[in-house]
Design a protein that fits this description.
- By secondary structure, this protein is an alpha+beta fold.
- Helices cover 38% and strands 11% of the residues.
- The chain contains four helices and two strands.
- The protein has a two-stranded antiparallel ribbon.
């Protein structure tokens, strides 16, 4: 899935929506080093593909994160509910 054109297009669209910034860094939580992090960005599935594959391209299930915050999100050290709330906020 992650090598498909649909995913590449959606991933790019999410980064554009999020202004090529880590959305968690902007909140200045979870040991953020820089408020505006634009390096090593990844698009994270808030609800993992393994739990609900149908949400794989849903914009409200995707968020741009730096590598550090992506790892925390994958370990559920950043609650899903908080990530969903961040997505609902405009930057």
């Amino acid at each position: 899935f992650r090598k498909t054109n649909k995913w590449n297009e959606k991933s790019r669209a999410i980064r554009i929506r999020d202004k090529y910034l880590c959305r968690v860094c902007i909140t200045n939580k979870y040991n953020t080093n820089y408020r505006y992090t634009y390096k090593d960005l990844e698009v994270h599935h808030i609800i993992p593909l393994s739990e609900d594959y149908s949400k794989r391209l849903d914009s409200d299930n995707l968020i741009t994160l730096c590598r550090y915050h992506h790892e925390l999100a994958e370990k559920n050290e950043i609650p899903r509910e908080e990530l969903q709330e961040i997505v609902r906020q405009d930057i």
